[in-house]
């Protein structure tokens, strides 16, 4: 791969825009590099000083004297432009393939992920609609689920959205030319929104596990608390921490895009690259400061993931243990009832799906941490392909969270039918847990007559 970063002087029509200059210069260098010849459609001169001097083919000859007929202010037709240029020129297909989406990536980013996102957004909106229509569904558990749905909605809107747009436009990895001058702001906001959504989603899953464990294993203490105030405080703390922890990622993404882009890509002459555009904007920044910030971003996600995984598994294990404890009458349950098996299965599925879907991203973060900690900045390309799997898994997790957290609830299914079938007269029962499934309470919690 050959990099060119210099100033060039272009002698072109005075009305030429910056975008036209990019195309003009990129066309010239593409011709030179691909044909290995100076006989190109654009006229040029021998390098003068430290940069090239290029003429527009519609203008005067490169060797024509620059007299008054070309630069008189009153009748100016042609003008000298000092133009900054950064070029990627690939020597062979092996180098170029790293910057082109494969057929698999094109299918996943261009077709599979949009379908998953649409289904996820529809399921979340149906959940919101059910809460609005059925007043009895507005309880503490569904308050947590609403916050989880908002976090998942943030992920669905922002995750892999940039890759989807590139797949449908230029197919060139790291290309943001379709965003124009707003690329820095839009991409930074997308990445930040997605990171906040992921962190909040993990935190609310952990909070839901704790709330279910506390409500079932300590029912009397749970009822005596001010649940509404407690839930609001917990949600505010989670959102505040999520927005705060991801500020490093926000500044990292902002600074990465705060450099001059490579505006031209010269592809190899093979037929499979003919449909690719050369006029692009690719941002590459390998400064040590940005690598350190990237390391911090991966540390934050990996620590949040592991902490939430440990807490969620612990709460679910304690809950399962509590569900299988002796009942309040002192009789030992001979075996788990059908209801207990269903509750245990739903809890296991909820935890497994969430953390299995986010596991590829945790693995990628761990690999980046280990590589950069050993001063090995360039991670193996085969390992970085996990990013595609991680993106698909993130979207899948956010798409099905609303389903798996409600599909096992008969109460939610009745409320869903009531909301969409307009059966206002039917009331949804408010009790979630049958009394016979409650474990034995501690002596201190028993009501003495």
TrEMBL record:
Keywords: G-protein coupled receptor, Membrane, Receptor, Transducer, Transmembrane, Transmembrane helix
Family annotation (InterPro entries): GPCR_Rhodpsn, GPCR_Rhodpsn_7TM
GO molecular function list: G protein-coupled receptor activity
Stated name of the protein: G-protein coupled receptors family 1 profile domain-containing protein
Membrane topology: Multi-pass membrane protein
CC terms in the record's Gene Ontology section: plasma membrane
Record field: transmembrane: 107-131, 143-162, 182-210, 231-252, 299-323, 344-370
A Pfam family hit: 7tm_1
Subcellular location: Membrane
SUPFAM superfamilies recorded: Family A G protein-coupled receptor-like (SSF81321)
Residue intervals of the G-protein coupled receptors family 1 profile domain: 120-405
Family affiliation: Belongs to the G-protein coupled receptor 1 family.
Organism encoding this protein: Patiria miniata
